[in-house]
């Protein structure tokens, strides 16, 4: 047995399956003239000839000897028979003499120089896999590479267990090399310091190592100081920032995940190199996480101060409203009296005294002065009231963060200003110098900083901290050791690597590398579409659209679901059997084996206790939590569930298990009624945060004033929720591309839909570059502008829609950077959501950002012109988004516990909940699909005439027949056998 189980049963089948694509099938099993000649020369009789050829093909691909008594693939036999001009039925006569088969196998190996695998190849294979194993520990990837090596050398595959053992040894060898690489550069003092992290101190109940991993409880000065002290502890270890640069990120991440699950005692028991390497991997990740969280807590605090200042100003203005009115009335009377005195020649002082005494006037002026503190009514001056709160952590923040800046005057200016404040905090200088860096100061801050009495340190420092937040977000300033706020260049493929990719035509984008050639083609297409839309608008020939006040208006869509489909849906839904959610999950697992994807973090072995695993998944999906789930599940405990979650539940295991369900659903024959799986939609669903999670939630005015978080889900046209992520409550477009690129399923999405929140010009550009057609449903589309290609044009009928001309020069000047950015996203060097936030953030207006926006204007204009004239496109988008909204209703029903509130403060736990909920909805959708087909088949068997065109309107999103509540038990006696199905409901009443 291998030391690690790195291949699942489905992986093993995948490795030796025959090619599915026709082109690959033909390439693998086409016989050359030499092949046919050898077959005829070595065989007599058609049965022997076709048998010889079939064995030859199996030995070439997949690379195995066809097992005795195994029936070969009939498609292959037919194809070989056609080439030999022999009927495939002759195979049935082959191999009656076992000796003949043995002779043929020996002849094939001799004539085609195919060698059997022997142990002399074993060590060589392990060494050849070393470079791959240093990059990944995924068994399937290594096994495929091993098989490619053996095929190239014409060596027959050994047994699948030997293949697994070779891969396992390669992984073990690579891991030992990585352990040595990470620990070899450590000094004796550093090793001692690492050992000390695992010791529980006298003052604390946990070790320093466990303390470092704790998340901040709330975004306030106290917890940012705790995080800064953690960063200080890690920096004292003096670990080089590039310590892990020679180790592939996959291995570092795995080591870090494993290390974080270990107790300090377990880590202490590791072999020394492994212990030090694991601690380094965890600390590198903790350093990045802490640095990012410090910046984000500071961001939250600053945003909160601005919000509080604005609210305070509004409250003051409201409270002083009556006083302001009184003063205005008094000054109105005073002004009127003075004007009258001027007309009559009366003494003006007497006129004043007739309205108000001098003492009262003096008091009125003082009151008016207090009301009108600032003429511009900017709430910014009230930020100063919170200066003491900011000063609690600001000196440590500026001291511990290693800030760097791009060669931009304003960014360099703010970095110099930070150094001055640091010198003030450390007592190196006693006051602000006369000449200060000021390029970063915006107009609204100037009157607060530069006063009649001199420069205000308070407002200068507050301005620095406020602007620093914006510069970090945009990437003009970055932090060494951060994951989300590092140098923009570090996110991208190096310029040298990209140049090589471009020269070898290997950028794998949806464009040609020649900017002029590409843009000429797009501009010609844009010109053509402008002419079509202009002519149709001029002649009033648009379908379901018309001109109004110079703008194109699109008519609302008519009812999408016919009455006959509604009647059929009611009839079918009455047949669906009642089922408990536990039984449903077991049944879906019987079909898909999705639980096999939940493997142990350390040894890769799949979970033995599937009921315990399903209980843990269910606790995430229905928002019950482990403690409450333990109370609702007989024969289990919180400790067991917690252990299962720690070792088996991770983002990648959720993703792989979801893919198993999605792939099964995609191939199910009933899914084709809803689509081909080539279009999709995405939408965010907000869940309120309460209890411990309330402080970690975010407020978005779109959803009210209460904090919350958002689960962002991608849904295929077949209703498959193939990707889900817990995201912040910001613009949806930030995360849209992630789901299209990073899902694990077999779906090949070509066209994607969102609502208005999913659209920006940057996203339009990147979606096109990455090979997707982007089709958002944009609110108030007629108010958005269409942009023209360069040159003189006359589209006067569309004049209200024209916003200007595309800046051709800006795009061509930054063409390589645009392609490098898109290629970096495609290759996985940087996550799409992260880089889109960087590009779209204020105040970055560099060449790449503006050029990408200009590029996006081309694609948005093309889309808008299509939208106006293509009712089929509008209908597709609407149907796709409606499916997403209906799926959100299902998710809301499933996620019913704790009033649908997120109460886990840990971001990782919230991500598990998002994944668990999506897995549950995917399982329900698959189960419903299977039984919808059975219900329709039953109706047909009873003589019901069903219009096939109506089946597209049936939905697998219903849940009324599913029991989501109760005790969560998994009785073996009620478990269906493989191939069995539940009896349909109400059969006698149909």
Automatic annotation (TrEMBL):
GO terms for molecular function: DNA binding; transposase activity. One of its GO terms (biological process) is DNA transposition. InterPro entries: DUF4158, Tn3-like_transpos, Tn3_Tnp_DDE_dom. The keyword DNA-binding applies. Signal peptide: none annotated. Residues 583-968 form the Tn3 transposase DDE domain. Belongs to the transposase 7 family. NCBIfam families: transpos_Tn3. This is Tn3 family transposase. It comes from Chryseobacterium fistulae.
């Amino acid at each position: 047995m291998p030391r690690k189980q790195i291949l699942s049963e489905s992986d093993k089948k995948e490795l030796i399956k025959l090619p599915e694509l026709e082109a690959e099938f033909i390439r693998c099993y086409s016989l050359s003239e030499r092949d046919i000649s050898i077959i005829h020369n070595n065989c007599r009789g058609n049965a022997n000839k076709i048998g010889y050829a079939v064995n030859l093909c199996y030995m070439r691909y997949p690379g195995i000897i066809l097992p005795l008594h195994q029936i070969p693939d009939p498609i292959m036999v037919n194809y070989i028979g056609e080439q030999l001009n022999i009927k495939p039925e002759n195979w049935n006569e082959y191999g009656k003499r076992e000796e003949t088969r043995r002779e043929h196998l020996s002849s094939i190996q001799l004539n085609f120089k195919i060698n059997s695998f022997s142990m002399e190849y074993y060590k060589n294979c392990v060494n050849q896999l070393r470079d791959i194993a240093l990059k990944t520990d995924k068994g399937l990837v290594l096994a495929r590479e091993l098989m490619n090596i053996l095929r190239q050398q014409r060596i027959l595959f050994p047994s699948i267990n030997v293949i697994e053992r070779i891969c396992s040894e390669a992984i073990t060898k690579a891991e030992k090399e990585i352990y040595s690489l990470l620990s070899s550069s450590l000094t004796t003092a550093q090793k001692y310091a690492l050992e000390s992290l695992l010791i529980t101190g006298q003052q604390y109940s946990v070790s320093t190592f466990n303390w470092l991993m704790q998340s901040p409880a709330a975004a306030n000065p106290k917890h940012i100081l705790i995080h800064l002290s953690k960063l200080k502890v890690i920096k004292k270890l003096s670990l080089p920032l590039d310590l892990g640069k020679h180790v592939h990120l996959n291995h570092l991440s795995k080591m870090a995940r494993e290390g974080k699950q270990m107790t300090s005692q377990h880590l202490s028991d590791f072999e020394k190199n492994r212990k030090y390497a694991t601690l380094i991997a965890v600390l590198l990740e903790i350093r990045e996480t802490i640095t990012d969280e410090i910046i984000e807590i500071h961001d939250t605090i600053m945003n909160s101060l601005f919000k509080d200042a604005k609210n305070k100003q509004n409250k003051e203005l409201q409270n002083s409203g009556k006083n302001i009115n009184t003063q205005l009335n008094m000054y109105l009377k005073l002004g009127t009296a003075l004007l009258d005195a001027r007309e009559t020649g009366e003494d003006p002082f007497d006129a004043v005294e007739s309205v108000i005494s001098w003492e009262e006037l003096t008091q009125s002026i003082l009151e008016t002065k207090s009301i009108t503190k600032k003429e511009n009514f900017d709430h910014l001056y009230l930020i100063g009231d919170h200066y003491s709160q900011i000063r609690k952590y600001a000196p440590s923040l500026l001291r511990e963060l290693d800030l760097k800046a791009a060669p931009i005057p304003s960014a360099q200016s703010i970095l110099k200003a930070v150094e001055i404040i640091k010198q003030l905090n450390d007592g190196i200088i006693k006051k602000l110098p006369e000449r200060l860096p000021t390029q970063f100061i915006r107009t609204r801050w100037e009157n607060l900083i530069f006063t009649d009495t001199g420069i205000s340190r308070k407002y200068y420092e507050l301005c620095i901290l406020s602007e620093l937040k914006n510069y970090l977000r945009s990437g003009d300033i970055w932090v060494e050791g951060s994951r989300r706020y590092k140098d923009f260049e570090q996110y991208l493929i190096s310029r040298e690597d990209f140049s090589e990719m471009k020269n070898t035509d290997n950028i794998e984008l949806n464009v040609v590398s020649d900017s002029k050639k590409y843009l000429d083609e797009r501009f010609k297409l844009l010109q053509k579409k402008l002419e079509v839309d202009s002519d149709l608008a001029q002649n009033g020939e648009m379908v379901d659209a018309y001109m109004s006040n110079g703008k194109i208006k699109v008519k609302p869509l008519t009812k999408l679901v016919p009455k006959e489909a509604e009647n059929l849906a009611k009839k079918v839904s009455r047949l669906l059997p009642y089922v408990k959610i536990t039984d449903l999950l077991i049944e879906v697992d019987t079909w898909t084996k999705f639980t096999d994807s939940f493997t142990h973090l350390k040894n890769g072995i799949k979970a033995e206790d599937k009921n315990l695993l399903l209980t843990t998944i269910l606790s995430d999906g229905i928002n019950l939590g482990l403690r409450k789930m333990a109370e609702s599940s007989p024969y289990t405990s919180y400790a067991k569930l917690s252990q299962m979650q720690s070792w088996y539940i991770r983002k990648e295991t959720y993703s792989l298990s979801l893919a198993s369900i999605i792939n099964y659903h995609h191939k199910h024959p009933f899914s084709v009624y809803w689509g081909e799986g080539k279009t999709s939609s995405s939408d965010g669903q907000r869940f309120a945060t309460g209890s411990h999670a309330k402080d970690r939630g975010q407020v978005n005015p779109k959803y009210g004033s209460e904090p919350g978080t958002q689960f962002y889900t991608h849904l295929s046209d077949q209703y498959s929720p193939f990707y889900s992520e817990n995201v912040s409550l910001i613009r949806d477009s930030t995360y849209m591309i992630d789901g299209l690129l990073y899902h694990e399923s077999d779906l090949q999405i070509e066209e994607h839909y969102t609502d208005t929140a999913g659209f920006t010009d940057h996203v339009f550009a990147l979606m096109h570059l990455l090979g997707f057609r982007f089709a958002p449903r944009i609110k108030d589309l007629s108010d958005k502008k269409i942009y023209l290609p360069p040159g003189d044009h006359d589209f006067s009928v569309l004049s209200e829609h024209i916003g200007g001309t595309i800046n051709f020069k800006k795009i061509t000047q930054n063409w390589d950077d645009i392609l490098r950015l898109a290629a970096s996203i495609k290759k996985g060097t940087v996550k799409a959501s992260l880089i889109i936030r960087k590009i779209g953030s204020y105040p970055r207006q560099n060449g790449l950002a503006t050029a990408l926006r200009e590029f996006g204007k081309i694609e948005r204009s093309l889309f808008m012109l299509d939208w106006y004239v293509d009712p089929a496109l509008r209908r597709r988008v609407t149907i796709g988004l409606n499916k997403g909204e209906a799926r959100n209703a299902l998710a809301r029903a499933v996620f019913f516990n704790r009033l649908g509130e997120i109460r886990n403060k840990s971001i990782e736990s919230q991500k598990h909940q998002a994944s668990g909920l999506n897995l549950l909805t995917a399982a329900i959708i698959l189960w419903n699909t299977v039984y919808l087909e059975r219900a329709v088949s039953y109706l047909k068997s009873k003589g019901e005439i069903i219009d096939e065109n109506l089946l597209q309107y049936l939905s697998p999103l219903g849940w009324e027949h599913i029991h989501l509540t109760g005790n969560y038990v998994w009785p073996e006696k009620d478990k269906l056998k493989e191939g069995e199905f539940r009896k349909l409901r109400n059969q006698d009443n149909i």
